[in-house]
Amino acid sequence: MREDVSVFGTGSTAAWVDPDGNVSIARAFSVGDATTQVVRCGACMVVLDGYLDGHVAADGADERRIVDAYERDGVEGLGGLRGDFSVVLWDTARRWFVAAVDAVGIRTLSYEWNGSSLAVSSRAVALLHRMTTRQIDDVYFAHLAMNLRCQRPGETAFRGIRRVLPGTVLFHNGRRLVERRVARIAFDESEPRRTDASRHEEFWTTLGAAIRDRARAERSAPRLALSAGLDSLCVAQSLLAEAPCVDAYTMSSDSWGLDEARLLQPFLARHPTLAWHRVDCTDATLVLDGTRQAPLPDDPDLATPGFRAAYRRMYAAMEGGGWVLDGEGGDELFELYTTVADLLGDDLRSGVDYLREQSSPRSVLIRHLIVPHLPSLVLRPWFRRELRARDPIPPWMTEEFRSSVATKEAIDDACTASLQRSFASCARGFLEGAADVGERQARRLARATYGLASASPFLTRTMLEFVAKIPARFRLA
Beta partners for 51? Predict the structure, then answer.
């Protein structure tokens, strides 16, 4: 399998240019221990960011699996691959360009197509050099000005630049550009009747498998971002079963109302092999290392030096650690995105018990069961009235801005995003929403500044599909 694999360049300088000069692929920014970047597999040139599940620690192995899937089933074959990855591929024989993102979409791709030439990058800002206007998108600015941050999936901050959605392949066959969805997370599958004990066992098995898959793709020991939250403690428990001696870091500050260090003491006492580090984040914004400027994120409002300053303090303490595990996504999957409709549809008694715990059960029922199903002619005026009551438009904005098409579109986006129809719709919004995607990218880039790669075991395809199929009451348990 390896005889037809060749590697071009190393580190962040890897690049390959087609002999006719019309195609160039490269890796311009690398994290941690990345070495081989541009790989020839038969007639295909491949650049892979990330790894496939079942990763084999050999240069070109994952790239070979990608090309095998492509040559066997065409672009549809890329939908069957699982892992945490984005990839671009140039088929020198067919003269096809292919770019793909896995079904979860943590590693993003942005593209700009002007009708005759195509540019694709893992960062939208890298595409600005070829833009003539370089203008901020009007709808993005409206979201930013009104603090809505509910841009539609696929949107970026820049006019003319879009993101490739999770599970989507973008390919150019020499005549036209096509965007095709080839993989979807099975959010709507139901599971056969089973016991809570078997679900509990599958949860731990799935979480452990996600950690092992990432460990196979890395060449260094993991670090753990540890909080007192249940999601973080579950990741810690699963990691300790694989590697008993782990360095864990917890953010703490005397000015915070919640003392996580104190809450963690019982857990730390049960796991004496865990090397725990308390990171003091008091006044973190004032003492950031000015020489460590994180790469510019795609969202301009996240480019300030103080963005996630406490997190950056913790990343600095971990510097050189290789990769970091955290519990990102756990709160959303196991609590926040479970709706009343999910609970009532799963088990009437669980839904009624949940409503009784709410301060205003009637309002919750209306918001979750009635409002999402109103016709748009009724829903949108209602939402606009509710929004006007909060008055999100700054007083210094002109009347022209208030009545603009972009402002109305931003309000409509916020209306759509606020409708919690089901767990599936909420989870898809979390994975695909432009604001959520932008913030995850900003955190990854901040970590990369300190030589750290990101790993969130809850945000894997297998875990997402497991959570989606279990009963709603089990997610809240």
Answer: 84
How many of the other CB atoms lie within 10 Å of CB of 233? 17
Which runs of consecutive H residues, i.e. helices, occur in 290-396? Answer: 309-318, 330-331, 340-346, 348-356, 361-365, 376-390
Sign of CA dihedral 422, 423, 426, 429: negative
Residue 10 — very low, low, confident or very high, per pLDDT cuts 50/70/90?
A: very low
Q: Which of 16, 22, 73, 71 is nearest to 46 (CA)?
A: 16
Using a CB cutoff of 8 Å and minimum separation of 24, what contacts does 142-145 make?
142/401, 142/404, 142/406, 142/407, 142/409, 142/410, 143/410, 143/413, 143/414, 143/435, 144/301, 145/393, 145/394, 145/397, 145/401
Residue from 19, 51, 2 nearest 454 by CA: 51
Length of the chain: 477
Give which of 108, 161, 437 is closest to 302, Cα–Cα. Answer: 437
Residues 7-13: contacts with CB under 8 Å, at least 24 apart: 7/36, 7/37, 7/38, 7/39, 7/40, 7/59, 7/60, 8/37, 8/38, 8/39, 8/40, 9/37, 9/38, 10/35, 10/36, 10/37, 11/35, 11/37, 12/37
Q: Are 429 and 289 in contact (CB under 8 A)?
A: no
Structure tokens at 475: 């997610």
Q: Strand pairing partners for 278?
A: 250
The C-alpha torsion from 98 through 99 and 101 to 107, rounded to 10°, is 160
CA distance 186 to 456: 19
Query: Which H/E stretch holds residue 225?
Result: strand 222-225
Q: In this predicted model, what pLDDT tens digit does every residue of 416-458 receive, in sequence order?
A: 887 777 888 888 989 999 989 988 988 888 888 888 888 899 9
**How far is it, in rounded angstroms, from Cα 89 to Cα 46?**
5
For the question of whether the overall pTM of this predicted structure is more than 0.70, the answer is yes
Could you tell me which residues come within 8 angstroms of residue 318 by beta carbon, excluding any fewer than 6 positions away?
223, 247, 249, 324, 450, 452
